[in-house]
Amino acid sequence: MLLLALDTATPAVTVALHDGRDVIASSSQVDARRHGELLLPAIDRVLAEAGLKLDAVTGIVAGIGPGPYTGLRVGLMTADTFGLALGVPVHGVCTLDGLAYAADLEGPFVVATDARRKEVYWARYADSRTRLTDPAVDRPAAIAEQVKGLPAVGAGALLYPETFPKAHEPEHVSAAALARLAAERLAAGEELPAPRPLYLRRPDAQVPKNYKVVTPK
């Protein structure tokens, strides 16, 4: 097994290689505006670090969000393209699940990432491997009672300490955590979700109202 894992659902552009036993190379850079520019060089870098070529990859793991449209599109289109070119399966993993796995907390807790617009993408977890709720997007104040008293991880939790007073790192997801979680689930015979994006809301870019379509005469 050689899994290439990547995630662009948060400001982090993160890539890792997992050989079936553990992560053998990884790279993470935080830049919310340069996902498309940074992702391919990061893939080249981890392959070079591992001394391997792309054709050695036997599977792709992609973070499916939730996250903003533009960032998610970069990672998922890259994963789909590589999967098609190499003839290997492409597996999806919820980005919040990757953060929960990296947090390695034993008791109930919350993962929250920054959804902008003064909102967070979030979910509750029983432990680092077990999600209790579907990913959702809400204003922090609207979920304050649901998360009251719980530890929290992720950039969204760190941004709103009044709602998440027990917030701490990790701030962003790492592909290393995604790869370890995916490898663990695949080894257990679990079927991972398709690499389709969890947007949870419409993209920021909208067609203007009263838009007139011009057709040739």
How would you describe this structure to a colleague?
The structure is a single chain. The chain has 217 residues and is α/β, with parallel strands linked by helices. Helix content is 30%, strand content 25%. The chain contains six helices and eleven strands. The chain has helices spanning 35-50, 69-86, 95-103, 144-147, 155-159, 175-187; strands spanning 3-7, 12-18, 23-30, 59-63, 90-93, 109-116, 119-127, 130-131, 136-138, 152-153, 167-168. The strands form two sheets. Strands 6, 7, 8, 9, 10 and 11 form a six-stranded mixed beta sheet that branches. It has a five-stranded mixed beta sheet with strand order 3-2-1-4-5, sandwiched between helices. Helix 1 (35-50) crosses helix 2 and helix 3 (95-103) packs across helix 6. It is globular, with a radius of gyration of 18 Å. The N and C termini lie far apart (58 Å). The model has no long low-confidence stretch (mean pLDDT 93).
